Structures are given as C-alpha cells and as structure tokens.
Amino acid sequence: MAARSxxxxxxxxxxxxxxxxxxxxxxxxxxxxxxxxxxxxxLQNIPETQVTTLENGLRVASExxxxxxxTVGVFIEAGSRYEDAKTNGAGFFLEHxxxxxxxxxxxxxxxxxxxxxxxxxxxxxxxEQTAFYIKAxxxxxxxxxxxxxxxxxxxxxxxxQIEKERGVILQELKEMDSNLTDVTFDYLHATAYxxxxxxxxxxxxxxxxxxxxxxxxxxxxxxxxxxxxxxxAAAGGISHRELVDAAKQHFTGASFAYKAKGSVPDLPRxxxxxxxxxxxxxxxxxxxxxLAVEGPGWADPDNVVLNVANAIIGRxxxxxxxxxxQSSRLAALAVEHKLCHRFEPFNxxxxxxxLFGFHFVSDPLSIDDMMFCAQGEWMRLCTxxxxxxxxxxxxxxxxxxxxxxxxxxxxxENIGSHLLHYGRRIPLEEWDARISAVDAKMVRDVCSKxxxxxxxxxxxxxxxxxxxDYNRIRSSMYxxxx
Length: 482
Hints:
By secondary structure, this protein is α+β, with helices and mostly antiparallel strands. It contains 19 helices and 12 strands. The chain has 2 domains: 46-251, Cytochrome Bc1 Complex, Chain A, domain 1 (2-Layer Sandwich), CATH 3.30.830; 276-476, CATH 3.30.830.10. It starts with 11 loop residues before the first helix and ends in a 7-residue tail after the last helix. It is a peripheral membrane protein.
C-alpha cells in the first residue's frame, strides 16, 4: 500500500484542544447514560446508502451525513490478481504514476490543485482492488469528482516520469524486503496459490519493474479501468443527486462512453495448495511463521463465524498489559511460557477463496512450543468452544464494527469495498444480526469444516531450524478422539 500524503495531529497544544478541560461528574454521568443506550440506536440511525447505476455501468454510491467534510473515492476491480507473470507490478506502478499528473494537468499541477483545496489525496493497490480517494470540504465535492475522473481517465504516463518513478519503486522494493511480516505473507500466498495469479505480490518483481514501459501501463488502464468495474463512493456532507450529476458530467471518457460487452476479463481462478516455503536465515534474531488453511470468499456467510473464532483466539504483543490474566487462552500461555513476541490470527478473503490462519514472531528455540499451542487452540475451537468465550468474541466484533463509523474516509472505503465484494452495502444492523446469530456450536462446526484434518500452507522466514517437518505439522491438524 502506498500513500501519497500523510495527515498528522499532535503537539501539546493540539492535545489540549482535543481534550479540553476535564468535564464535571454530572456531565460524565449524563454522557454515560446517553452512551449506554446508543448502540442499538446508532445501528438504526445510520443514514441509508443510496446507489445509482449509470448507463455506462458506473455505480455511484453515497452516505449523507451532516459534516463539513466529505471523502470521495474511485474503487476499481483491478489488482495483482489480474496480472500475469510478465505484467505483475503494473497496477502498483500505475498507482505511483496516477499522482504524477494527467493530460489536462501535467507535472505537479494535479498535486497543486489538490493542495489548493486543502484536500488529502491517497490511494492503494491490493490483489483484487485499486482505489484513489480525496478528503475535502463538502462544498468542493463537484471539483473532487472532476479531479478523480481526470486521474483515472487521463493519466499522463510521461516517459520521463515513468523513469523517475521506476527508481522510486525499486527503492521501495528494497525497503519492503526488510519488513519480514510482509515478506512472510507474500511467501504464504506464493505457496498457497502456487502457479496462479494470487501467488503474485502486489508490488511485482524487480525484473518486471525494470522492464515495464508506457505501453504496458496504458494497456493495463485500457483493459481494467472500465465503468462496470468501478464504484464512485462518497461519504459526508454531500447530496447523492449532486454526486450523480457530477459523475454523469465527468466520467464520460472513452472507457466510460458505453457499457461495452466483453470488456471485462474473467477473474482468474486460483486453487489452494497445502504446501510450504522455508527461507532460513540464522543471522536474523527472530523467526516469522504463518500457517493458513483455505478460507471462504467474501460473500460466504461462514466469514462471520470465522471472525468470531479469531476473536476468541485474540492477539498478543509483549507490549500489551494484562500478563497471564488476558482473556485469550493463547495469549495467557504466551505470557506464562514466553512463547513468542507477538501473534495475531487473520482471515484474508478474496472473491472465491481466502486464507484463514495465524502469524507469530518468536525466538528460534520457542517455535515448536508456540506452534504446538497455536494448533492446539485451533483444535479446541473445533471441538470444545464455549458459549462464554463466544459471547466475549461477539462483543469484540461489535466494537470493531461500530469503529467503521469513525470518519468519512473509513465509511467511504467501506461503501466502495462492499459494492465491489458483495454487490451492495451491507448495513451494520444486518452485520449485528449475523454476529448475534453465532453460537458455540456454529463456531465448532464451521471451524471443523475449514480447519479440522485439512492440509495447511506454511511460510517461515528467519532462524527456523526448530520448525518441525511439514508432515509433523500436518499431523497436528486433528485430534485422535476415543
């Protein structure tokens, strides 16, 4: 993920403005009473997401609120999964180039125009999605839509800028190699989806970045930046009608003039493989281990249950407080026996598949013990998850769910991603109902479906001599029960 601008808030004066004077006890009590009844009301009072599909296939979606700012973004169904071995990295390269001027606004004129609005411009590329978004004053929404349309339709792709950005990306790739967590997850994709498009990294290979040229980038835009594969999403103090009018006015280029049949390439199929990649380097101080089984795709209802299961497992870092009193059994074991420096479960979904697993960082001599305890926790979820821990996990998910309402940018990203992944914006009230329906039996059944006696994919980096043979790890994916 590459950011083009960063907003920071800090300093003692800033904190004083944010915190203000300490409120009175009466005011605190009133706030608590009002907040205690606000969860259900919040879910019911969230503004409806309005969606309009234009004649060219572009979906325009917005959620209106009474705020002085708005975030508008273009979300595109394109990423490294749509690239082949020769073009891998084109989407990431194009993301860099998108901020380097358009045919209408060459050079730094684009960035200066964004800055003149006091706006915040950002973007990212993933395996299945590319996004560009701008946060600005609500009154500037029509101008923001025009800027975004210019960015995705008229990227300049000047040869001089391509060569300049090529060096920047190559330097980024070197820096990414030092982030062992990212390296481990790239290896995990490479072994789990070997021989398929999901095995590609988002950033591409060094050889590809050195070789990609203007024709390759222009071809990527012409192939993937089509109206039916895009969502124009907005959140904040904006009018849906005005947003639609702005979209009709500006998203009218050659790629958006009509809904061309056959213009959208099929999604490459990717098959999960139980296998492993080991990159041993005894010079490194810590080992990074990731283990995953195949999970469901975005739209599968089992995702909610698996997220509850991950909330039961919890996450841990040595900087956390609580010691052995943490609610997560695995975290308590990690503290008591000094098993690892940190661990976290993950449930990474794609259109038709996913990776459900855990990642941990440990000292070389603790790998075996940590793997044993983590796999034991998986088996316990399959056989003996309890109602009390499911209740705790559901409350954790509800808290994470309402955090999505924090700010127009998160809401905008939520809208755009939902329309690409599910074809609609799923209301938080519906998510809450799905979470509430989960019980301990569902957790045991769904975990057994995806975890029990399944062949995992494993990626390991660093001093990993103590990591057991793959067959030994595979044998711990079930319990012999009498």
